[in-house]
Amino acid sequence: xxxxxxxxxxxxxxxxxxxxxxxxxxxxxxxxxxxxxxxxxxxxxxxxxxxxxxxxxxxxxxxxxxxxxxxxxxxxxxxxxxxxxxxxxxxxxxxxxxxxxxxxxxxxxxxxxxxxxxxxxxxxxxxxxxxxxxxxxxxxxxxxxxxxxxxxxxxxxxxxxxxxxxxxxxxxxxxxxxxxxxxxxxxxxxxxxxxxxxxxxxxxxxxxxxxxxxxxxxxxxxxxxxxxxxxxxxxxxxxxxxxxxxxxxxxxxxxxxxxxxxxxxxxxxxxxxxxxxxxxxxxxxxxxxxxxxxxxxxxxxxxxxxxxxxxxxxxxxxxxxxxxxxxxxxxxxxxxxxxxxxxxxxxxxxxxxxxxxxxxxxxxxxxxxxxxxxxxxxxxxxxxxxxxxxxxxxxxxxxxxxxxxxxxxxxxxxxxxxxxxxxxxxxxxxxxxxxxxxxxxxxxxxxxxxxxxxxxxxxxxxxxxxxxxxxxxxxxxxxxxxxxxxxxxxxxxxxxxxx
Length: 499
Known about the structure:
Layout lengths: L7 H5 L1 H17 L5 E4 L4 H15 L10 E6 L6 H20 L4 E6 L7 H8 L11 H21 L2 E4 L8 H11 L8 E2 L6 E4 L7 H10 L8 H10 L34 H9 L7 H10 L25 E2 L2 E2 L6 H21 L12 H14 L7 H9 L16 H11 L3 H18 L7 H12 L4 H30 L1
Parallel strand pairs: 1-2, 1-4, 2-3, 4-6
Antiparallel strand pairs: 5-6, 7-8
Helix pairs in contact: 2-3, 3-8, 5-13, 12-14, 15-16, 16-17
């Protein structure tokens, strides 16, 4: 006996199920003046959600569909290029179709602030590639831009309703979270948003299965002109076995395990979707440089554990040395490593533009705004006054760097810095200390008030006051042992005084 629960469509019948859902969407839309924000990623769930809302509003009289509906799509700037092009084209079609059909949809392509982009943090500041215990990317690249947009709607209108394509069938954890928020609903169908006050969440396909989603998409014409069968092909191409069958019975495997995301993601063992695209479509060989860079960021030792310590400074961002279990906790990527990563990225961009199809002839793996911010971080924040970014850009791309000269009063050029390096020999820490002190003095030399100068000099000496990494670790251990000894003595003194 098969105890598998009926799917959403099996329980009600396809036509009746859709009719009821469209009525629900219409009633909710007309119930108040709160603007809607639909999250759209270009994947199957968000496409189905947007398509349902579109169909529901299209059935309303024009005088009733006046409340704005924002369609937001977050581009992390490191999305899989194939998917990014799909979403970009889709947003363009959504805007044009909404205008032609007199519907209140407005598409918005959101991107992270240039100061918080993936490459600015990784190549600029030297953040190590994201790890499960240091997942710095999601908040900056995806959550932040979306929250900022919704917050702007809330600030202007007082409230906002977010329409999302999340489903309980995606995972047990997702189902548990959705049930938890259902219990806290302030109105029928609307759950609170845990991170955004006065923003509510509506999930019209929350009870759908993967099969329901595909059944809807492939049996209902896309109202903004995209071909849903092409979306199916996109999922098939990203599946290792190149299969994404329609489910006809309980024994047929369903489609939907494909996951699209950032091509640089190191939080997964392998980027299966991108590798499958190469495997299933020889015309996508141009994506190989992306996999090479991604695998370089996911550096592991012979035991399969992440190990990029050789690429990173033994000091933290602040210049301090931190120990954990008597081992040093490494900090940001070293200067040479960051410069090599930038060079590899620009070379990959050129190779893709040369070998790839017309759709990627103008592909930007890194934007000019990001390059400008990386340059600022290197020269100003990190005192790397060699100013190597324009040179790397010109070496790889064979054209002038488009940014302005960084500092018209620059005292030290490449020849002067080479003299300093020659004087310091192989003592890299000594070279860095001298360079830091020279740049600090240069920055403060034109100021009328030189407040903060001594603090900056003290920080430079604190960061460079080691002979080498071994000396730094020894000093950190001695400092820790001395502190432990002082704490023990303090505890003893307190105990004696209490007796």
